[in-house]
Structure formats: structure tokens, C-alpha cells
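At this stage, I put together one protein's amino acid sequence and its C-alpha cells, which the following lines show:
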Amino acid sequence: MLELAVLGLLAEQPRHGYDLKKRLSETLGPLWGISFGSLYPALRRLERSGAIEEVSDTDGRTAAGTFVSTGSLKGDLAAARMRLRPRPPRRTRRAYAITARGRELFTELLTDETDDDERAFAVKLVFCGHLEPAARLAFLERRRAQLTQRLVTERKPATRAIDRYARSLLEHRARSTQNDLDWIAELIAQERGEQAGDRTEGATA
């Protein structure tokens, strides 16, 4: 899922490693524990596969400051010497950009139906706006089917005697799943409404 998230962020714009780490932490949350030790190996894998490429960006000042007289000959001479002093070379930072192959891989990972656990779903949902409308709706419908099946399982009577604490935990899980199901149903209704509106506008244009 880290590769998917990296490609999703680079699909928006080229980014440096530090910016990627910051955005990944914001996007995936602190529980993922994104570190440079996990990020840079992922970047190297993506670069070797041709999904991303390295681009250069220069960090530093591009122009000298405007000279302002100090009113003192000694001060003006000192300022002039400072302006003529050779400046250190500007630092070049490595940045990464997504390639055409990377966009293909991004779509493949985003529509992969074999990996839909909780974490995978969360990452895919963040970037599902990049999908075509039909694929986005299919993704949400698939999640609803998974939650519906989970709710059926969680509401099955216990096969053995359990105490009130274990029963309370099962009821809590079922309520949480029902809340997720209601939320997904709202997303699906919104998606269908937007797509229907787009079709109507296209027909009247």
C-alpha cells in the first residue's frame, strides 16, 4: 500500500522525499509509522520498475540583494566586498515524478480486488477520485458487499455460552460495522447522484 500512496501523491505533482514523508504521514496517519527507512526503499523499487523518475530541483537564493548605501564609505566598501564574494553553490535536491508507466501501475493497484483489508481500503478511498466514475462506484459497491457479509457473520448467535463482556464486544463490533455500512451507503448515493447529474448536463449541452 505504500507504493500506491506514493504514486497517488506523485500523480498530483512531483515531490521531494521529505515532502512525501510528510504528506504520507498526514494521509495514512501515525499508525502506519512511515519513516525514511521504509520510504526510500519503496522509491527505489518504483524507480527501478520505471514507475517514477528522478528530477532535479534547486534550492537557494537566485538573486543578490539590492545594494543600499549605508552613508559610510567604510561601510559601503565592506558591503561591496560582501556582494563580490563568491557565493556557495546552490543545493540541488532530488525530487520524484510519476511516469506514464507509473500512472498505469497506480490504476492497477487502485483497482486491485485481491487486497481490500481495512488499511488497503482506507488508502484506496483517499485516492479513488483518480478513478473513472464507473470504477469508483464499483469500488464502493464492493466495499458495501464486504461489510454486509461481515455484518451477517457478526450477528450470528454465539455457538457457545459467553459472558456479558464478550457479548458486549460482539455487539460493539456489529454496531461499528453497521455504522460503516451506513457511511458507505451515503457515499454510494452521493456518487450516483453526481454521476446522474453529469449525464444530465451532458445530454442538455
User: Anything to note?
Assistant: The chain is about 65% helix and 10% strand. The helical segments are 2-12, 17-28, 36-48, 73-84, 100-110, 118-127, 133-154, 164-204. Confidence is low (pLDDT under 50) at residues 58-70.
